[in-house]
Write a structure and sequence with these properties.
It is a single chain. The radius of gyration is 17 Å and the shape is globular. By secondary structure, it is an alpha+beta fold. Helix content is 21%, strand content 49%. An 8-stranded antiparallel barrel has the order 1-2-3-4-5-6-7-8.
């Protein structure tokens, strides 16, 4: 049974995470609706990402079932705006928003391979409630493999942390 103090802390953390997610959704909506994206060859795409797990080194010190959901709005120039929520490795809710700068890409056997560097912010980390509510800088490499409708994304730093998500393209 949760104490009143624990329940209050849980509600506050949920509200902060929800606020960050709603800000991210509004930013994505503005980008998609008013077209602040410069015109480039290609077309923009929206992907839904389901986060499932991570791998940490050294093993055994962190939660590695990190379920969550996010949106990836891939721009016509193949950069991306991403946002979402997940249960982090410390068993707390984290929200994130980032810009993914495409660093390389290749197409082979009907699949698109892309590397990005993500620049953004994330919540949910810290040693106390106030610290967990703060937005922290986020800079991570990511790698995606996508077909026409489904894909996978891996992000993190090999030898320290890797996270895996599965993606579905919205029509």
């Amino acid at each position: 049974m949760l104490s009143a103090r624990q329940l209050d802390a849980l509600i506050r953390a949920w509200l902060v995470s929800g606020v960050v997610l709603w800000i991210a959704i509004i930013v994505l909506a503005v980008v998609m609706v008013i077209g602040v994206v410069p015109a480039h060859a290609g077309e923009s795409e929206t992907w839904v990402t389901g986060w499932c797990c991570s791998r940490h080194w050294p093993a055994g010190e962190h939660r590695e079932r990190n379920f969550g959901a996010g949106l990836d709005y891939t721009l016509a120039n193949r950069d991306a705006v991403i946002a979402g929520n997940y249960r982090n490795s410390h068993d707390r809710t984290s929200s994130y928003i980032a810009y993914g700068l495409r660093t390389w890409s290749a197409d082979a056997v009907g699949l698109a391979f892309e590397g990005r560097v993500l620049f953004g912010t994330v919540s949910g980390y810290g040693s106390n409630e106030r610290a967990r509510q703060m937005l922290r800088p986020l800079i991570l490499p990511s790698f995606t493999v996508r077909g026409r409708r489904v894909g996978a994304v891996v992000m993190g730093v090999p030898g320290l942390l890797l996270g895996l998500g599965l993606e579905v393209r919205l029509p």
